[in-house]
Fold this protein.
Amino acid sequence: MTQRDSAEADGDQQSLPLVVTQWLDHLQKNRRYSEHTTSAYRRDMKALAVLSKGMPLEAIEQRHIRQFLATAHARGQQPRSLARMLAAWRGFYGWWAPQIELPVNPARDVRAPKIKRSLPKALSVDQTQALLEAPALVVDQSPASQRDRAMFELFYSSGLRLSELVQLDVHYVNTPDHQSSGWIDLEQGQVQVLGKGQKPRMVPIGREAKQALKQWLDVRPSLNRQARPAADEHALFLGERGARIHPRVVQQRLASLCVKAGLPTRVHPHVLRHSFASHVLQSAQDLRAVQEMLGHASISTTQIYTKLDFQHLASVYDAAHPRANRKDNK
C-alpha cells in the first residue's frame, strides 16, 4: 500500500467532528449541493483530520494549512485534488469562523497549486450523430431505450452537467416535501437548471431533444411502479424501479451505447457537454452565449473551447489546403 493509499484509508476510518457534519448537512439541505459534491467535501475534511493529527480545528492556522498541503502533495496527491481540498477547507472555515469568532479563515489566503489545464475531450459532429442515431436508441422502442434517447439528446442539446440532468423534474414543483432544482418546459422549449454555486440558468432545448422527450414522457408511466421519496415523485428520468435515475446508471447506459454504436472511445456524459460547447462555438463563434448556456462563472473557463475549435480548424486546413502538409518531392 502506498503512502497515498494509506492516507486515504486512514481518512475513511476517521470520524468527523460534529461541526463538520453540521456544515455538510448545511451544504446539502440549505445550499442544495449535490450528493457528489458533499461526498467529495466529506473526504476532504477527513483528510484535514488525518493531516492535522487531532489538532483542534480552531487551533489550525494558515501555516498549518500550507504544511498540510505540502504533506499531501508529498504523498502523491495531484494539484487538482489539492485545489479541491483547499476549497473545501476554505468553505468550511468561511462558514464556521464567524460563528466562533475566529479572527481569520486560515485557508482564505492560501493559494492552490497551479493546475495544468488540459483540453476537454469532445466528439466530432459525425461521432455525435453516430451515437444519437444508433439503432439501440432509434429502433428499440422499449421504455428504457426511449428514456436513454431523451437523456442523451438533452445532454447534447443543452450542454447539461450530469448532476443537473438527474435532478430534473417533469415540471416545477414547490411543496413542503420537495422543491425542484431543475425542470423542463417543452412548450417554451427550454430547460431550467440550478448549476454550480446555486446559479440558475435557462438553456434552449433543440428540436430532436424535444421530440425524444415527448416520446419518453408518453411511456414514462410504465416505469412509475413503486412508492418512492417525494423528491423522486416528479423526477423526469426514472430508473428501472421507478425512482429518480442514479448518475452511475446514466454513465453505464452511455458506455454501453458507445460500444453498440462502434465509437472508438468510451464516452463519459461530460463529453456530450464538451461536444455541445465545441460544436456551438464552431458554428456561432459567440463565446459569451456559450458561457451563459454552460453556466460558467468565468469566461476564461469557456475560452478553453476556442482551443478545441482551433484544433478543428487546423485539421480542416491540413486536409483541404493545397499547400498544407505537402511532401517534399526533392
